[in-house]
Each structure stands twice: as C-alpha cells, then as structure tokens.
Amino acid sequence: MANSTSKDPKAAPKDEEPAPAAPGKKRLILIIAVVLVLAGAGGGAWYFLKSPPPAADGKLDTSKTAKPPVFVPLEPFTVNLQHDDLSPQYLQVGLSLKVTDSAVVDTLKLHMPEIRNRVLLLLSSKKASDITTLEGKQALSGELMREISQPIAGSAQAKGIDSVLFTSFVIQ
C-alpha cells in the first residue's frame, strides 16, 4: 500500500495544490501596482490643473489667467460746440480709458497734457447734431481712441488702450 508521505514525486496525491508564491513577492507586486496607480492619478491631476481646456472654437480659454481690467479716469472736459444755429451749445463729457496694464497708465500720465489738448480740440470741432445719436457717440469714441493713442504711438504701450468709455455726456 502506498504511503502518502512517500518521497516519490509521481506518487503525490492529487488533492494538494502547488505551493503559494512567497509573501515577499506578492507584497512587491502590490507596492508596484499602488505606485503606478498613484503616479497615473498625479499625472492626470497635473494635466487637468495646468493646461486650460480649449474653447469650442479651438482657441485656448484664457479666462483663468486673464488680468482684471485697468481703468484710467480722465478729468471732465467742457467745450463749446460748433454752432448749428445762433445759440451756443456746450458739451460736458467724462471719459475713462480701459487699458491693458499699469505700464500703459504710467505712459498715459507722462503724456496727459498732450492727450487733454488733443481731446479738447477734437471735441470743440463737433456739432451737437453730430454727436447726439448713438452712432455719433460711437464714431466719437473711435476718433477719441485715435487721438489719445497718437502721443504714445512710438512707445511699447501704443497698443495698450483697449477702449474709450463715456462716463458722462451732457449737451446744453
């Protein structure tokens, strides 16, 4: 009769399973898997946090890094308008400039006397009938933009004026 404790390898009973892998090897595989999962999660988080998603039109969305607007208020202007009839008319207007950054503000302040002169000459050349409509005010805004940009045209901040905004507009 065959003894189950025999040393013959062919005589091993079929109930026995192969010996399990060493516990150190299982632990090493588990550690490597955890490291890979964490590295993948970290890389994914870095990708989504560092790169802005493209907009629907294919351009990058810069809203996360957009600078807040910088506004430069100008002192109010009061000028005589050109006569449409016999009675004189006056224009009192308040303006603010929307600029890209504080370097443009500094450049504008250096040239402010020349800018105010150009604005006064432009405004005093207008008739009330030319600037009372919405289209007239929009055209005037464009003309003011050109006149205000002229003194700084040679500087690095020449393109730094985004728009000319009316803060008050009174014709009497």
TrEMBL record:
Cleaved signal peptide residues: none
Membrane topology type: Single-pass membrane protein
Cellular component terms (Gene Ontology): bacterial-type flagellum basal body; plasma membrane
Subcellular localization, as worded in the UniProt entry: Cell inner membrane; Cell membrane
Biased amino acid composition, Basic and acidic residues: 7-17
Biological processes per GO annotation: bacterial-type flagellum-dependent swarming motility; chemotaxis
Annotated region described as Disordered, given as residue ranges: 1-21
InterPro entries the UniProt entry points to: FliL (IPR005503)
Segments crossing the lipid bilayer: 28-49
Keywords, comma-separated and alphabetical: Cell inner membrane, Cell membrane, Cell projection, Chemotaxis, Cilium, Flagellar rotation, Flagellum, Membrane, Transmembrane, Transmembrane helix
Protein family (similarity comment): Belongs to the FliL family.
Physiological role: Controls the rotational direction of flagella during chemotaxis.
Protein name, as recorded: Flagellar protein FliL
